[in-house]
Amino acid sequence: MDKERFDISLEDLQTFLAVADQGSFSRAADRLALSQPSISNRVKRLEEKLNVRLLERTTRKVELTFHGRRLHERASITLRALRDLLQEFNAETGMRRRQVEVAATMMIASVALAPILGSFAEAYPDISVRLRDRIPDVAIAEVIDSECDMAVMVLERADPALAFEPLLADRCVAVTPLGHPLLKRGSATFAEVLAYSVLSPDGHVALRRAIEEAAAARNLQLTLSAPARGVTNVMTLLAMAAAGLGVCIHPSTLIPAEFRPTIGLVEIEDCEILRTIGIVTASNRSLSGPAMRFREHLRRAVRESYPNAPEVRPTVPL
Q1: Nearest CA among 318, 310, 297 for reference residue 124
Q2: Distance between CA atoms of residues 176 and 255, nearest Å
């Protein structure tokens, strides 16, 4: 037999073990729900493959030969380990089928999704949702690579590999320190907001572009606050606004509750800058049952939590 080739049928090996354990071809046939000739043929084929005699057949019983005892000892251990491994695989597969992997950008994960995960766990205690806070590019890559069932985020650009379902159009407001002059009326024109330097990181490309386009359309000068240019963490950005380092133009629903006592929020009267948050999935892959349940729960929770939000637009945002 070729040393590099394992030319033995697993069924033949299982049949041999059944005959050895039962001490009878007929009892092995009953155990495996096969005919006795089938049992005999399998054992014969195994002996021919191994080129040794495994069983001594008499009119009253079947006994193992020396080679048969060796094979029985080793094969029993091997097949038992294989069965245990297959059971582990089945258990893990069942667990994965009841688990939903969700990626989200940091602020959406921490501010918007945390309470929704809590209510979903109460409604579906048998389904586990694992949340991954990711930067946008990583979240998209994990959806495309099937590492995540979906991502909840702002999708900056269309991609044929992705499907985008808008959930919430989030209107931006001006975030200021407490006692800021813009807070006197509670709202301000875009020109009044841009009279102050704006905290806009270089990494927030789409939001920066929306602000720049709105300013250009009104012939307004935009001054960027230098300390914020390299910031990546939105929590840091809000802390800088609270410290008076500039005004931050930020989606209103994605401001953590713990920050609100330390900052002022100013509605922009004559300029609507929207960020559309939605569900990103792979366009060529269907969601599992548990993932579909989570998506429906997410839709319902967003409708209930933000009933007065602007109407979402069924397009990929800028």
Answers
A1: 297
A2: 12
In whole angstroms, what is the distance from residue 118 CA to residue 121 CA? 5
Can you give the three-state secondary structure of the chain, one letter per residue?
Answer: CCCCCCCCCHHHHHHHHHHHHHCCHHHHHHHHCCCHHHHHHHHHHHHHHHCCCCEEECCCCEEECHHHHHHHHHHHHHHHHHHHHHHHHHHHHHHHHCEEEEEECHHHHHHHHHHHHHHHHHHCCCCEEEEEECCHHHHHHHHHCCCCCEEEECCCCCCCCEEEEEEEEEEEEEEEECCCHHHHCCEECHHHHCCCCECCCCCCHHHHHHHHHHHHHCCCCCCECHHHCCCCCHHHHHHHHHCCCCEEEEEHHHCCCCCHHHEEEEEECCCCCEEEEEEEEECCCCCCHHHHHHHHHHHHHHHHHCCCCCCCCCCCCC
Q: What are the pLDDT digits (tens) for 179-217?
A: 999 999 889 999 999 999 999 988 788 889 899 999 999
Give the tens place of pLDDT for each residue, 10-65: 888 889 988 888 888 888 888 888 888 998 999 999 999 899 999 988 767 788 99
pTM equals 0.63
Closest by Cα among 199, 200, 190, 169 to 268: 190
**Cα 155 to Cα 5: distance, rounded to the nearest angstrom:** 51
